[in-house]
Amino acid sequence: MRMWIYILRRLILLIPVVMGVMTITFVLISALPIPTRLASLYGSPPLRDARIYYPTGPCATDSSKNCTNPAYAHYLDKSGLNQPIPYQWALYIYNSFTLNWGTVGNGSTAGYYFASAQGQSVITVLGWFLPYTLELAALSLAIILAIALPLGNLAAVNRNRPIDQSARVLSFSGYALPGFLLSSLALMGAVIVVGSGTHFFASSPWCSVGETTWSEFSGSWPAQNCYGVIGNSGYPLWLTGGYISHPTGFPTIDAIANGAYWLALDSVVRLIIPALVIAFGSIAILLRFVRNSMLEVMNLDFVRTARAEGVPEHTVIKRHAGRNSLNVTITVLGLTFAGFIGGFPVIEDVFHLNGVGLLLALSVETAHGGIDFGLVFGATLLFTLIVVVANIIVDVLYAYLDPRVRLG
Amino acid sequence: MDAYKRTWFFLRRNTLALFGLGVLIFFVFVAIYATTQPLPYYSMNSYCATNNSNPTTFTSQNTTNSVPAPGLPNGTYSWKVLPVTESGLRYAATPSSGTIHVDGTRVVVSIVFGAGVPSSPSAASPSSGLSADIKASYGVTFVEADLPFETPWTISMNYTSPNLCISQVGTVCTYPAGSAVPGPGCYETPFENPSDIAPTLNLAKFSAGPLPLGSLTLNPTVSNNFFSVYAGLLRGSDWSLLLATSIVVSGAMIGLVVGAISGFFGGVVDETLMRLVDIFLSIPQILFVIVVIAVITQGNHTFLGLDANNTHIFLLIVGFLVTWWPFYARVVRGQVLVVREQKYVEAARAAGAGKGRIIRRHIIPNSIYPVFIQMSLDVGTIPLLIGVLVYLGFNIFPSSYFPEWGAISANSVLELQLFLDTCTQATGCIVPWWQILFPGLVLFFFAISVNFLSDGLRDALDPRLRR
Description:
The complex is a heterodimer.
Chain A: H1 2-29, H2 34-42, H3 70-79, H4 85-97, H5 109-113, H6 122-157, H7 162-176, H8 179-195, H9 213-216, H10 251-257, H11 261-298, H12 301-308, H13 313-324, H14 326-342, H15 344-351, H16 356-364, H17 373-401, H18 403-407
Helix pairs in contact in A: 1-4, 1-17, 6-7, 6-11, 7-11, 8-11, 8-15, 10-11, 11-13, 11-14, 12-13, 14-17, 15-16, 16-17
Chain B: H1 3-13, H2 15-36, E1 59-60, E2 75-82, E3 84-86, E4 89-91, E5 93-94, E6 97-102, E7 107-113, E8 117-118, E9 130-136, E10 142-145, E11 154-158, E12 173-176, E13 186-189, E14 201-202, E15 207-208, E16 215-216, E17 227-228, H3 229-265, H4 267-282, H5 285-296, H6 312-339, H7 343-350, H8 355-366, H9 369-391, H10 405-422, H11 433-461
Parallel strand pairs in B: 12-13
Antiparallel strand pairs in B: 1-11, 2-6, 2-11, 3-4, 4-8, 5-7, 7-9, 9-10, 14-15, 16-17
Helix pairs in contact in B: 2-3, 2-11, 3-4, 3-6, 3-9, 4-6, 5-6, 7-8, 9-10, 9-11, 10-11
């Protein structure tokens, strides 16, 4: 019973946290000029109607009764941008909670590359791209857990011995190398190792049109994001109808659900190297905490008692010490998840995966237009929500494992 | 145990931490040394012009005759064939440009003229293509032959010597690969990417040119547009250390105060402050900095006296700070909750100490050790995050060649990607490894040294791990 009360309490406390984040985003949004804000709410108008958001003359930034531009005044009233700030804040919070996060415009790099996203609402577009990021995150988490937990235990048990030192050095090297460096080198390395560098200088190295080795370790299906070339990836049409696969939108799950097992394997293969790069960066942090919590637990009395009773050492480590050291590990996992979600733009940019990070990186690029603030703030809110939800899951797991948290 | 033994055991136990500390102190000295060196860190201009800066061009026409060309000196030549429009048909050559390398042996280049395409919709139908074999023989003659019929076409060949001079370290000039060395102190450059200059460290003679670690450029096909990796890394040390320490120390101070207040007072204060910490913890760091920079640079309005042109480094610091302090607050609060229950705090309160005194004298000194550990870790992370920002294309520094470790490594990776996209030859593209290896090594050693230091600090300061 106390478990449900704890969960309820955490969920209720979620709301002020989310509102606080929305307030911070609102403070940043209100620093933007009004035409930009209108464009982020309703999408950029076609060029011939640019006068709607960017009028010249007396109505350029004025919303008083002297305004003679009816379209501009209409949009101002509709968006509530001529009201005082507290009203705007309340309206923003309401829109954010009802998932009315704005519209994708046609004047940004993201709108340039993903033409069918123009005019769609931000939530829809984010929903197209989110499953790829989640798949990548899931695979990375699995790899991190599979490597960091046993290695951390091993390092704690053999404290300061060579295996401890080498594990720390190896993991720190992952922590010390920046993600963009590592990912470029990893992709090049994969091409050289697997493809003997023969297709290194293919004419269109980033697109999966053709059989280059480069393309086998990057890119996403079903929608290829060859920059400027958006088309069929060569996969069956019943899977590639548009940007999302059917029925769930997660490529791997959909491939399995539709019986195309080779495609599922292929999409996992495309995710391995990015997931390894992400994991390499995060293993260090997790390893350090696993090692420290294990060290802490192994000094406690009940472990000494178990040893004195004659329990074999490996059972002591696995059953008695291991379980109790999971607390800190789970907390750190939550923090890690928060950390690497912010690092996805670079990984997805280098490996050409259609994730939210790529969307974010493209929407802040100014090469083919301005910055798409609807997408930027929408992605910020989305990432924040993911982090908050992950923290709640972590706290619930923590409470499940450690009764002292529930009762104290 | 006497002092010698104790020292020896201390060194043996904390080897890695001392190594990390040593490397960090080395970096600090490098930063101090860098400020004494008048090294220019913007793009270097060409200061010397030689007689090879004008391209030598010759053209040939009317290929039914073999026209002797003027003698070609040895070197690498770029040639191009201009498309020709004749009788409403336009002929273009494949390939239409390229390079040949004249070194005294016969060189054969094959050019195929494509089928004549009507240059306007009403012109005649296309005819068959043409072909030509252009031979450049030893030193003297340039013979064109084997064209089926008379067509005016032009081939021009350019011999240009990219000439790069680096100021303040003496005059340095470069010469294209394969040609004769024009003079002492000259360094070879690839003809296609004249700004990609390999490291010139000559260990056998213990000499180093002005580019001991090579050059870094954002436009490899343009000459005179690079800076020395060595100079950039040297200068970058003071910028990286400055940014990292300012962000981390300010974040730690704010987090320490918030965490101590929240942990000590408990109750409603604790709850509200922890919710505040949760709010700021939920915002991904890089995202927040991106948003802040994007918003402030968007309009031409000013925000607290800062406008779009002169704010970036300040914005960087503030942007990181806003999302950085919650880590410290959380860590300090956890520690304060433990310290608060200790006996000495109870004793101090029994002796009549006020709350401020207890916080100042007892709580903060005993709960500060995780802050040091976290600080030493974060210092190594910040140049990497700045590199990510530069990689995503944000001009957070006043110049695109700004010397900062993260910026240098991000620019080098971007240039590597550019290079991989544009290098179309099967062999002969020189990967600019020096631009990636050296900045990467520096970042790596920096981060690892602070990691070792933080481990040593923890082993030394953590009361729970003491035997």
